[in-house]
């Protein structure tokens, strides 16, 4: 999971942030906090019927991927084992150092892809110019 906005690489999505919770205090966030944040997101994404009940239909069908990510975040963070694995892989200091290495590798790959794309465009432009010269 790569966030251009934050300029960081992760093995998994930032589940606390997906639910609108601060990651900096992840050790103190309780299941109740997670439930409240999830319910708020549920109200944000789901339709409400005429009686005020939240229905399963999304307000905007294009939000399906985002809603699925909210559900995944809720399921991971409310399961003690999965949450512990997520925190150790994504949030603890040793994981941050490993992810910094992944970020460097990702950025190098992106630079290489851009360089290859420029070379391809130059080669195409040169070929097109050679064709024009040959046709004239």
Sheet having the most strands: 2 strands, antiparallel
Mean pLDDT equals 82
SS field, number of helical segments: 5
Residues in helices, as a percent range: 55-70%
Annotate the secondary structure layout:
Elements: E1 2-3, E2 8-9, H1 15-18, H2 31-45, E3 46-48, E4 54-58, H3 64-78, H4 80-90, H5 93-135
Antiparallel strand pairs: 1-2, 3-4
Helix pairs in contact: 2-3, 3-4
Task: Identify the notable features of this structure and list them briefly.
mainly alpha; two-stranded antiparallel ribbon
How would you portray this structure in words?
The chain is mainly alpha-helical and 136 residues long. 65% of the residues lie in helices and 9% in strands. The chain contains five helices and four strands; from the N terminus they run ββααββααα. A two-stranded antiparallel sheet has the order 1-2. A hairpin with a 4-residue loop joins strand 1 and strand 2. Helix 2 packs antiparallel against helix 3. The longest helix is centred in the C-terminal third of the chain and has 43 residues.
Q: Can you summarize this structure?
A:
With 136 residues, the chain is mainly α. The protein is 65% helix and 9% strand.
């Amino acid at each position: 999971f790569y966030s251009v906005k934050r300029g960081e690489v992760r093995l998994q999505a930032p589940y606390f942030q997906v639910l609108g919770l601060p990651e900096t205090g992840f050790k103190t966030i309780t299941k109740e906090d997670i439930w409240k944040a999830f319910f708020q997101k549920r109200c944000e994404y789901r339709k409400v019927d005429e009686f005020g009940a939240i229905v399963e239909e999304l307000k905007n069908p294009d939000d399906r991927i985002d809603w699925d990510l909210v559900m995944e975040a809720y399921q991971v963070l409310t399961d003690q084992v999965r949450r512990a694995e997520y925190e150790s892989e994504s949030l603890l200091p040793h994981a941050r150092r490993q992810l910094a290495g992944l970020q460097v590798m990702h950025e190098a790959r992106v630079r290489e892809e851009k360089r290859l794309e420029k070379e391809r465009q130059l080669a195409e432009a040169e070929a097109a110019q050679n064709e024009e010269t040959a046709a004239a």
